[in-house]
Automatic annotation (TrEMBL), chain A:
GO biological process annotation, one example: sodium ion transport
Assembly, per entry: Composed of six subunits; NqrA, NqrB, NqrC, NqrD, NqrE and NqrF.
Family: Belongs to the NqrC family.
Keyword line: Cell inner membrane, Cell membrane, Flavoprotein, FMN, Ion transport, Membrane, NAD, Phosphoprotein, Sodium, Sodium transport, Translocase, Transmembrane, Transmembrane helix, Transport, Ubiquinone
The gene coding this protein: nqrC
Family annotation (InterPro entries): FMN-bd, NqrC
UniProt name for this protein: Na(+)-translocating NADH-quinone reductase subunit C
One Pfam entry name: FMN_bind
Domain of life: Bacteria
Automatic annotation (TrEMBL), chain B:
PANTHER family named among the record's database cross-references: ELECTRON TRANSPORT COMPLEX PROTEIN RNFE (PTHR30586), NA(+)-TRANSLOCATING NADH-QUINONE REDUCTASE SUBUNIT D (PTHR30586:SF1)
Lineage: Bacteria, Pseudomonadati, Bacteroidota, Cytophagia, Cytophagales
InterPro entries reported for this sequence: NqrD (IPR011292), NqrDE/RnfAE (IPR003667)
Family: Belongs to the NqrDE/RnfAE family.
Name of this protein: Na(+)-translocating NADH-quinone reductase subunit D
Membrane disposition: Multi-pass membrane protein
Location of the protein in the cell: Cell membrane; Endomembrane system
Function: NQR complex catalyzes the reduction of ubiquinone-1 to ubiquinol by two successive reactions, coupled with the transport of Na(+) ions from the cytoplasm to the periplasm. NqrA to NqrE are probably involved in the second step, the conversion of ubisemiquinone to ubiquinol.
Native species: Sediminitomix flava
Pfam families for the chain: Rnf-Nqr
EC number(s) reported in the record: 7.2.1.1
Any GO molecular function: oxidoreductase activity, acting on NAD(P)H, quinone or similar compound as acceptor
């Protein structure tokens, strides 16, 4: 009886139903708590880009509430109010990355290194988190820009904090879903991220997204380059592509800030 | 999965922790350790042992999965069709692993970001599948629970020992608390997986020298 096809199929079906039910229940029960943790972690990463760190998530949430003002812009640098989410923090950068990726690929037409006009990218929402000076509601200490891309194995992302001049990087944090430990996964190590600090994204008056070099221990690194991660060429390529795409997408907005800064002088 | 433990059926009056049962728990801690003797579950031992905290979480996760999958499979052992038993075992393991992963995401989010990938890989951990196939399919529930406990404790002490030396020598800390003065030189090698290879190799060496174990 136990070996009959009917028994085997019946057993498999019963097991599938029980396991499916159990996992669905676990997911539903824990969802709210997980969403809260993810939201807190996002705030933690945003603050980490400007060097505010700590283990106490509630304290970080308080700093976030006090000092971060957020807006959403499009690829033309205009602020948008209808961005399909409750708040800029809720904008899915991953979903927007997918929208943007298709358009960029079409514009590049097979030539990966082709130079394209990023302002022709439509329907992409770009959140910007302004880190205000302590005690000020109007003076910005840094602009934190979320970035997203694809590494060697899976998605990669990060937050790049720009100084108010919108020319130099104040700090950067990167995360990944599955890069190789000890190799590509080093993109989320502090020593790799610190290499971006103070780097310039402008060269001869034009945007030049800071790029990671090939190999490690390079000498003669320019203001627009950072040293590489040995053994992680494809993760580096993904990281560079992410920086090129996003800093170009944010460029119209950054130009406005730079323009304002000039006129204020 | 090389080892196949056969435990004789014993009469019902056996004590809860009889000598034989204590043996089931104690054996994998030393003479039949899954990592150092059977050389199973090495991937996670290399990957999560840079620090004590993820290693402890991984140990608890493996313990939960081995003990409960052993118990569940043992309870079902007379019902499971032989032809699909491996799939059934994998189904049970995968379910427990997903439950652990979801709980970690809800209550220990930072740790889950570090060990999440490896928690998922418990599904393919030979220790777990090995215990189900070699023990739980042929033994009673309580014996299977003890067997799972023994195997997971054997796994746990080795990865915790590796993590202790790696964190101490690599970062000068234990459980994130700085114990070595800053002036003490840090061994960068210990923070990379290479350090884990060296420490595990040394543990295997010392243990086999002490026990006189020789590979057949």
């Amino acid at each position: 009886m136990q070996q009959s096809n009917g028994y085997v199929i019946g057993f498999a079906v019963a097991m599938t139903v029980i396991i499916g039910g159990l996992l669905a229940t676990v997911k539903v029960v824990l969802k709210e708590r997980q969403d809260t943790e993810i939201a807190l972690d996002t705030k933690k990463q945003i603050l980490q880009a400007v060097g505010v760190t700590g283990d106490d998530k509630q304290a970080l949430a308080a700093i976030y509430k006090e000092r971060i003002q957020s807006v959403v812009v499009n690829a033309q640098g205009e602020q948008v109010s209808d961005f399909g989410a409750k708040s800029p923090e809720d904008v899915s950068v991953q979903a927007n990355w997918k929208v943007m990726k298709k358009q960029v690929a079409a514009l590049k037409g097979g030539d990966k290194k082709a130079s394209i006009d990023y302002t022709s990218v439509n329907d992409v929402n770009l959140p910007i988190f302004k880190f205000m000076k302590e005690g000020s509601k109007t003076e910005v200490e840094a602009y934190i820009l979320p970035v997203y891309g694809y590494g060697l194995w899976n998605d990669i992302w990060g937050y790049v904090a720009m100084n108010p001049d919108m020319k130099t990087i104040k700090g950067a944090v990167f995360g990944h879903a599955g890069e190789t430990p000890g190799l590509g996964a080093r993109m989320s190590d502090a020593d790799v991220q610190d290499r971006y600090q103070g780097k310039s994204i402008v060269e001869n008056g034009k945007i030049s997204p800071v790029l990671m070099m090939k190999g490690e221990g390079n000498t003669g690194i320019s203001d627009n380059e950072v040293d590489g991660m040995s053994g992680a060429t494809l993760t580096r390529d993904g990281l560079n592509e992410m920086m090129v795409n996003y800093l170009n997408l944010y460029e119209p907005y950054m130009q406005k800030i730079r323009g304002n800064a000039v006129s204020l002088r | 999965m090389s080892e196949t433990a056969e435990v004789k059926e014993v009469k019902k009056s056996e004590e809860l922790l009889s000598k034989r049962r204590r043996g089931i728990v104690a054996d994998p801690l030393d003479d039949n350790n899954p990592i150092t003797v059977q050389v199973l579950g090495i991937c996670s031992a290399l990957a999560v042992t840079a620090k004590m905290e993820p290693s402890l979480v991984m140990s608890i996760a493996v313990m939960f999965v081995v003990v409960f999958s052993n118990l569940i499979i043992s309870l079902m052992r007379n019902l499971v069709p032989q032809r699909i038993r491996i799939i059934v075992q994998l189904g049970v393991i995968a379910t427990l692993v997903i439950v652990v992963d979801q709980v970690l995401k809800a209550y220990l989010y930072d740790v889950s970001k570090v060990v999440g990938v490896y928690v998922g890989l418990i599904i393919t951990n030979c220790i777990v599948m090995g215990r189900l196939e070699a023990f739980a399919m042929g033994n009673k529930p309580w014996d299977s629970v003890l067997d799972g406990l023994g195997s997971s404790l054997g796994y746990a002490w080795v990865i915790l020992a590796v993590a202790f030396f790696r964190e101490l020598l690599g970062s000068g800390a234990v459980f994130g608390v700085q114990v070595l003065p800053d002036a003490f030189p840090k061994v960068g090698l210990m923070t990379s997986p290479v350090g884990a290879f060296i420490i595990i190799g040394m543990i295997i060496w010392v243990q086999r020298w002490r026990n006189g174990y020789v590979e057949e």
